């Protein structure tokens, strides 16, 4: 079931969604098998920023009947320590790496893309433009012009495929995708989480330390599918569809509306091997 994504041959269509599968933590818990039987056809890293971040104060997760609301806040060790400690280990994975980065301003993004582009085994860079841009106060991924300016700023720095990860919290994600594509993006990934609020049942105050959070899981799938279908119809670059994929059948829906790859996020929290299971179920559907 191999698939060509931006010139890279992948064993199947299922990759992990950024921030939802940590191969190093999986190896600590399950042993070497977490690497040798890696469940995805490529590994997408959690978002890396220039400086280390603690993330938001707890609590950071709220489980709802069909979804998860997180307020993680991009905790990560920062690019320098990632390069020193994580990258040498992640290179040992049997699959290629896609590195997800976010800059709080253009200079940060230039630094991140400049560093990542020189790394062996990295086959693409995913730009997380679904977070606040402190320069203009807007979410880059919700504003077509801002998104185009961001892609344009880094396009010349790398020959690696640039994947732009869109937010669903936008009036017209297809307009943002068109702007990203025209500015030189090679692919779009979508959706990031939907803004949501969970209240503590006892106090009716926000439960999450960060106030609001991002909703993911099967409960967002219909929204993700509609947005993915509209973006697939609007641009000719490949799309990585995600949002609530938890089975071969639901992955197949994203492929049916035009996605080239499918990413699995929240499903990996209840089943660390969800990626392989879903890839197997997809292959089974093809044989029917
Ligand atoms: C706990 C958690 C952490 C996440 N961290 C990131 C992140 O670091 N960078 C990013 O681009 N998306 C992040 N996401 C969003 C996912 O990559 C994905 O876009 C979203 O969860 C929808 O897919 P799903 O419904 O399969 O989880 C995170 C999602 C969750 C639930």
From TrEMBL:
Cofactor(s) listed: FMN
Instruction: Tell me the compartments it is located in.
Output: Cytoplasm
Against PROSITE patterns, the record matches this protein to: DHODEHASE_1, DHODEHASE_2
Provide this UniProt record's keywords sorted from A to Z: Cytoplasm, Flavoprotein, FMN, Oxidoreductase, Pyrimidine biosynthesis
- Which GO BP annotation is one of this protein's? 'de novo' pyrimidine nucleobase biosynthetic process
Which InterPro entries does the UniProt record give?
Aldolase_TIM, DHO_dehydrogenase, Dihydroorotate_DH_1, Dihydroorotate_DH_1_2, Dihydroorotate_DH_cat, Dihydroorotate_DH_CS
What Gene Ontology molecular-function terms does this entry list? Answer: dihydroorotate dehydrogenase activity
Annotated ranges, domain Dihydroorotate dehydrogenase catalytic: 2-283
Quick one: which pathway? Pyrimidine metabolism; UMP biosynthesis via de novo pathway
- Name one matching Pfam family: DHO_dh
Cellular component terms (Gene Ontology):
cytoplasm
State the family named in the UniProt similarity comment for this chain. Answer: Belongs to the dihydroorotate dehydrogenase family. Type 1 subfamily.
Q: What NCBIfam families does the record tag this protein with?
A: PRK07259.1
Put simply, this protein is called Unannotated protein
Provenance organism: freshwater metagenome
């Amino acid at each position: 079931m191999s698939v060509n994504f931006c010139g890279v041959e992948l064993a199947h269509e299922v990759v992990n969604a950024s921030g939802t599968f940590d191969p190093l933590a999986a190896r600590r818990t399950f042993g070497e098998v977490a690497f040798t039987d890696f469940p995805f056809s490529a590994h997408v890293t959690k978002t890396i920023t220039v400086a280390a971040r603690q993330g938001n104060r707890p609590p950071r997760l709220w489980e709802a009947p069909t979804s998860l609301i997180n307020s993680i806040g991009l905790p990560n060790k920062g690019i320098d320590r990632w390069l020193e400690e994580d990258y040498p280990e992640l290179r040992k994975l049997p699959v290629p790496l896609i590195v997800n980065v976010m800059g709080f301003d253009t200079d940060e993004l230039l630094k991140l893309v400049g560093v990542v582009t020189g790394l062996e085994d990295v086959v693409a860079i995913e730009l997380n433009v679904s977070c606040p841009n402190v320069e203009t106060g807007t979410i880059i991924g919700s504003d077509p012009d801002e998104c185009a300016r961001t892609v344009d700023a880094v396009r010349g720095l790398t020959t690696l495929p640039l994947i732009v990860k869109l937010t669903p919290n936008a009036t017209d994600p297809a307009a943002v995708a068109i702007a990203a594509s025209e500015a030189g993006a090679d692919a779009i990934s979508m959706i990031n989480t939907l803004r949501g609020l969970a209240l503590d049942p006892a106090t009716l105050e926000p439960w999450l330390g960060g106030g609001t959070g991002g909703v993911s899981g099967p409960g967002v799938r219909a929204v993700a599918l509609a947005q993915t279908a509209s973006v697939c119809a609007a641009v000719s670059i490949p799309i990585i569809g995600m949002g609530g994929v938890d089975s071969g059948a639901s992955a197949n829906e994203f492929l049916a509306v035009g996605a080239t790859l499918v990413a699995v996020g929240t499903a990996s929290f209840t089943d660390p091997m969800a990626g392989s299971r879903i890839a197997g179920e997809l292959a089974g559907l093809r044989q029917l």
